Known about the structure:
- The protein is of the alpha+beta class.
- The chain has helices at about 50-65, 70-75, 90-105, 110-125, 135-145, 150-170, 190-195, 210-225, 230-240, 245-250, 290-295, 310-325, 330-345, 350-355, 360-370, 375-380, and strands at about 10-15, 20, 30-35, 40-45, 255, 265-270, 280-285.
- The chain folds into 3 domains: about 5-75, 2-Layer Sandwich (Double Stranded RNA Binding Domain), CATH 3.30.160; about 90-195; about 210-384, hpI Integrase, Chain A, CATH 1.10.443.10.
- The protein is built from 16 helices and 7 strands.
- The chain starts with 11 loop residues before the first strand and ends in a 5-residue tail after the last helix.
Amino acid sequence: MNIQNTHQNSTSFHTKRGNRVFKKTENSKSWIFEKVINRRRYQFRVGKHLPTAKDLADEIDAYLLTNSMENTILKYKKGVSDPVNGRIPLIGEIVERYRLMAPSDLGVQKSSAKAYCNSLLHIIDKHKSLLELNDESVSEYKKGRLEGVNDEDDIKARKRSINSVLRNAKSLFGKEAMILYKGWNMDGVSSLMGSSSFKRVRKIYRLPPSDLVCRTFALCDQYESEGDTDSHIVLNLALNFGLRRNEIFNSRRAWIEIPDKGPARVGVFSERSFHVKSGEDGYAFGSAVSARKLLELSEGFDYLVSSRNPRTCLDPVVADLRGIGWGDKCKPLHECRKLYGSYLATTQSLYYAQKSLRHASAMTTNDFYADLMTDDSVISLWGT
């Protein structure tokens, strides 16, 4: 397993974490990642595709921080498989390839790629062939998820969950994603892509009680008065600009624009390691007073939130929101985004809310992110 003069080989590149991948010779097909522990060299084949090889090398290096070399070899000894012309792949091979390549090749967020892959694995086992992802297996998945559920509301909720899983699983086989599997026989995806979702089970958005909205704004003020700057910024961006979790964490001072007149705006565009949810970049509009408060509290740092650990800055706010009445079955920060959508749709227009929330369709905004506000005391919360 020893390598001779690998550091002098011109076919080598460094990764984001400072690791190195290389080829043994100019004609080698696969990239290699080498790790030296106690003067012993260990090599891992990390695939033919350079961006994927770099990502996998960094993943192996990170895995070694908390795991033994023996366990690492067992997990990564096969590296990432390359498509073989005409061969029908296993579900596990498709999942592994998408998980490793989609973030770099398609710009899909790693968390989204993981969610899509997990959805496919909910439907069918990773050890099965793609051909076994047929009408029967998809139907069996649906029946299994509904088995033993009798309450009408629970049935609708379960069907919505099934629809979400099917939608996510189909994302692995979209037009752009199919480029990742070039060389494999992918004819078996037709059954999944042609499977229908349950109809008339959509959950239309309805505003929460007015007192819960008031408690939410009071919590934001409490953060400021107690000097909990990061928590205030997180909730401020959710309530007053409708930003998503990942957008909040990655938001920067340079994103904020405050004109002499009119609302402030926060630009949300892919940059650095941050990728906006597909097709939903643009500007989020909000109060100039809130925008100035964000700039004031961020104290000149590049990022608005000083903590660079998303769990450290986001999870405590989520816990506090649950503590004041947001239930365990919802995503509290996303509910704040919906609240803001309702405020904009009521005080401005549905079109204005759509543009600020950056939805491709106004129907999405209308059905899932906006309800009519009739309580003036609630509407006034955004004006303070």
